[in-house]
């Protein structure tokens, strides 16, 4: 076929090897419901053809086809020629809201658009590899369906439909894989300033609506890289970072934090580890932790561990908690060391950064599971000794239980220092079975809640029974079940805990602690018993990790010519966000000792 039009976008670099052609005098105030056919098409010219420029008026001869869902003309040799526009008006960007259906989007495919209405960043997992950011039409990120309702429920179905209606990618006008060795010296676009899930997106330039790689995309009119994004980027993002959690009140603050495989024992300390490497081939993180010859996770070298540790410490100190349940920290007993070795390393680093000795860890109790029966990661408690103190030993669930493929719950009772001896509270730290793994059978097969939902649900019931027994024996009805439950808000394990009378405190924040595949939800929870809920002054999910680009994590250091790591700040210190809960407990001032000694 032969057609004529104006060039609205051109991609001589980056791998697209073509341009967009749009009919003269089209676009503008378009109504997708009555605009049934697109006025534009992608023209593939190959890498060796003479490039065209945006604004050129050209005649194209070639063959029309569908390439991976994208309608295009493959131009014949010599099939692109400049023509005289003879006073024809150039097309205008179509001023349209993002269409909610594929049929309406098809009517705009390839056309220049000026997107109307609000857009929000909803996913960053592909930003560092492909230079693309997932957006959601509207003012909020996409929600994980099982955060809204159980599988098969009306709320679940409505959320799936809403996500399909709102999702669209912001692309970089290129097919570059920045993880490929040949491309790591090319700066990744869009990440020079903080870009976070939940950030508002403002379009400052027209873009092209196209479809490729099985998704609808907004393409800039020219390739965007980290070198030219100041001029070429079609968007700006709001900066939603906060230096501290919200003010939640309380005299004592309780937190939970998954610390991303915090292993002071690094891969280089073992003989059988293999590694993920940076662009220079240097080891960064361990990639065969399940190999008995390796047996560790996390950093490959001491230098990378120090980067990870620095960010974790910055996050803990800025969190402002007095008691913190930690998840995903090295279980040093599995490596032939004192079980609390890694906890001690972290506490020493916190105290050094804090300039004191206030922080301590809760030692393991006398009765612990055998090292052979435990996981390589564990939970644990750290606390500020000037504010609270532990009462007695911690208690770990022992004996046969559903936690054979997870981490046994670990409980500790606390009270304020110098406070009323009855002002106690009981905290049970948890890290349930993950949603991944091979060999799932029966009710552990993924049916919409991730693999091993059956085991997680059994763990939830066992946890409730464990906590009830401790509450009775310790005469403490203020119980908090806390940690990484690997279950979203409306999944069976969370429902099981709530059904036992506990309140999911994080639900009231309107925030999520985790982001996966462009959808947000909370895997991390603080559940309060009825009595515990009466002393809660507020809750916050401090969004410092799940909403940040993974490129800012220590494990991505030197993956690209642009270094996105800041080891001194808390942002992307982990992939989970910490939670913080304020508690109303009586604090007394320390007694004043008489001059000249003590009694």
TrEMBL record:
Query: Where is each Endonuclease/exonuclease/phosphatase domain found?
Result: 256-576
Q: Name one Pfam family in it.
A: Exo_endo_phos
Q: Which PANTHER family match?
A: ENDONUCLEASE/EXONUCLEASE/PHOSPHATASE FAMILY PROTEIN (AFU_ORTHOLOGUE AFUA_3G09210), ENDONUCLEASE_EXONUCLEASE_PHOSPHATASE FAMILY PROTEIN (AFU_ORTHOLOGUE AFUA_3G09210)
InterPro entries reported in the protein's UniProt record = Endo/exonu/phosph_ase_sf (IPR036691), Endo/exonuclease/phosphatase (IPR005135), ExeM-like (IPR047971)
> What is the name of this protein?
Endonuclease/exonuclease/phosphatase domain-containing protein
GO terms, molecular function: catalytic activity
Specify the species.
Answer: Subtercola lobariae
Q: Which domain of life is it from?
A: Bacteria
């Amino acid at each position: 076929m032969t057609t004529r039009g104006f060039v609205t976008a051109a991609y001589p670099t980056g791998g697209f090897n073509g341009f967009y052609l749009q009919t003269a005098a089209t676009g503008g105030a378009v109504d997708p419901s009555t605009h049934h056919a697109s006025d534009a098409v992608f023209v593939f010219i190959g890498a060796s053809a003479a490039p065209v420029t945006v604004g050129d008026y050209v005649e194209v001869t070639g063959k029309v086809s569908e390439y991976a869902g994208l309608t295009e003309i493959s131009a014949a040799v010599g099939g692109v020629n400049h023509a005289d526009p003879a006073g024809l008006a150039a097309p205008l960007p179509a001023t349209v809201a993002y269409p909610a259906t594929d049929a309406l989007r098809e009517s705009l495919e390839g056309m220049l658009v000026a997107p109307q209405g609000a857009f929000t960043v909803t996913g960053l997992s592909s930003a560092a590899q492909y230079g693309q950011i997932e957006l959601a039409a509207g003012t909020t990120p996409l929600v994980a369906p099982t955060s809204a309702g159980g599988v098969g429920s009306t709320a679940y179905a409505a959320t799936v439909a809403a996500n399909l209606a709102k999702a669209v990618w912001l692309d970089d006008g290129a097919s570059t894989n920045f993880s490929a060795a040949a491309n790591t010296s090319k700066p990744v676009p869009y990440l020079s300033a903080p870009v976070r899930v939940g950030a508002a997106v403002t379009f400052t330039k027209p873009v092209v609506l196209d479809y490729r790689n099985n998704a609808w995309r907004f393409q800039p009119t020219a390739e965007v890289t980290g070198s030219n994004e100041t001029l070429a980027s079609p968007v700006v993002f709001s900066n939603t970072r906060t230096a501290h959690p919200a003010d939640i009140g309380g005299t004592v603050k309780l937190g939970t934090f998954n610390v991303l495989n915090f292993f002071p024992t690094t891969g280089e300390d073992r003989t059988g580890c293999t590694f993920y490497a940076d662009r220079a081939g240097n080891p960064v993180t361990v990639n065969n932790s399940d190999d008995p010859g390796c047996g560790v996770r996390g950093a490959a070298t001491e230098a990378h561990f120090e980067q990870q540790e620095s960010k974790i410490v910055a996050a803990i100190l800025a969190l402002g908690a007095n008691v913190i349940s930690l998840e995903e920290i090295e279980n040093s007993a599995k490596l032939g060391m004192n079980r609390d070795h890694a906890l001690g390393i972290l506490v020493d680093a916190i105290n050094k950064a804090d300039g004191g000795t206030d922080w301590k860890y809760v030692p393991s109790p006398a009765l612990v599971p055998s090292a052979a029966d435990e996981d390589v990661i564990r939970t644990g408690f750290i606390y500020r000794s000037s504010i609270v103190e532990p009462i007695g030993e911690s208690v770990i669930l022992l004996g046969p239980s559903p936690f054979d493929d997870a981490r046994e719950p670990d409980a500790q009772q606390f009270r304020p220092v110098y406070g009323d001896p009855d002002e106690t509270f009981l905290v049970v730290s948890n890290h349930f079975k993950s949603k991944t793994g091979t060999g799932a059978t029966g009710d552990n097969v993924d049916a919409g809640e991730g693999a091993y939902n059956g085991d997680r649900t059994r763990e939830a019931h066992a946890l409730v029974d464990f906590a009830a027994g401790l509450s009775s024996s310790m005469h403490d009805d203020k119980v908090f079940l806390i940690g990484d439950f690997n279950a979203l808000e409306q999944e069976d394990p969370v429902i099981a805990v709530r059904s036992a009378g506990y309140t999911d405190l994080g639900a009231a924040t309107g925030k999520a602690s985790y982001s996966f595949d462009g959808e947000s939800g909370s895997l991390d929870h603080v559940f309060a018993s009825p009595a515990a809920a009466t002393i809660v002054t507020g809750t916050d999910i401090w969004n410092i990790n799940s909403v940040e680009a993974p490129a800012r994590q220590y494990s991505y250091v030197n993956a690209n010519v642009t270094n996105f790591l800041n080891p001194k700040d808390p942002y992307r210190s982990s992939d989970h966000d910490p939670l913080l809960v304020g508690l109303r407990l009586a604090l007394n001032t320390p007694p004043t000792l008489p001059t000249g000694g003590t009694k």
